[in-house]
Write a structure and sequence with these properties.
heterodimer, A: 114 residues, mainly beta, seven-stranded mixed beta sheet, four-stranded antiparallel beta sheet, 11 strands, globular, B: 110 residues, five-stranded mixed beta sheet
């Protein structure tokens, strides 16, 4: 299995809702990442997990809460989002160490906050 | 953050070679150059990476200058399916995160 699977593919949520994005990989990668991508912009790093521990938080608002329950799963819990949080949310995984033989990205969850 | 400079857009005729340049003048000795591409509405796809030597795989070739301050990604026979945004990134050492720049939109024309 050489894929990163993200669910759901599309999500519409209200500003008072709580929802979660899910990401799964079975490549044995010990680093997992969340990126946010607005339209016509490059992906922006949000969080990095290495060995299931949060290692980088790029000053992301607390309404985004990541979780890594095991080495194959990565979740992003969403609460009280704003319309400007509407974006494509990308998950990626990679082996640790250098050289890093490439991130594998999922196809993303397209989130719309109404 | 690691900064790279790429042209915002390029055109290429189908079947011809596409040569995408990237400047990375602040790259450190232990940092690798990576190339990714993103086809519309999909996740980025890894293409190739290199440190000092030129590299080739089934997708592309990577030419890195001797001073390592710039590189060129070569798609030898571009097809319409190669139309995408191409990102040049450098990363390495204790920094294993990838920071995307603005990339180059390559349009392959029939």
């Amino acid at each position: 299995d050489t894929e990163v699977t993200q669910t759901p593919k599309h999500l519409v949520m209200g500003m008072t809702n709580k929802k979660s994005l899910k990401c799964e990989q079975h490549m044995g990668h010990r680093a997992m990442y969340w990126y946010k991508q607005k339209a016509k912009k490059p992906p922006e790093l949000m969080f990095v997990y290495s060995y299931e521990k949060l290692s980088i938080n790029e000053s992301v608002p607390s309404r985004f809460s990541p979780e890594c329950p095991n080495s194959s799963l990565l979740n992003l819990h969403l609460h009280a989002l704003q319309p400007e949080d509407s974006a494509l949310y990308l998950c990626a995984s990679s082996p640790l160490g250098q050289p890093n033989y490439g991130y594998t990205f999922g196809s993303g969850t397209r989130l719309t906050v109404v | 953050d690691a900064k790279t400079t790429q042209p915002p857009s390029m055109d290429c005729a189908e079947g011809r070679a596409a040569n995408l340049p990237c400047n990375h003048s602040t790259i450190s000795g232990n940092e690798y150059v990576y190339w990714y591409r993103q086809i519309h509405s999909q996740g980025p796809q890894y293409i190739i990476h290199g440190l000092k030597n030129n590299e080739t795989n089934e997708m592309a070739s990577l030419i890195i200058t001797e001073d390592r301050k710039s590189s060129t990604l070569i798609l030898p026979h571009a097809t319409l399916r190669d139309t995408a945004v191409y990102y040049c990134i450098y990363s390495g050492g204790s920094n294993y995160k990838l920071t995307f720049g603005k990339g180059t939109l390559l349009t392959v024309n029939p």
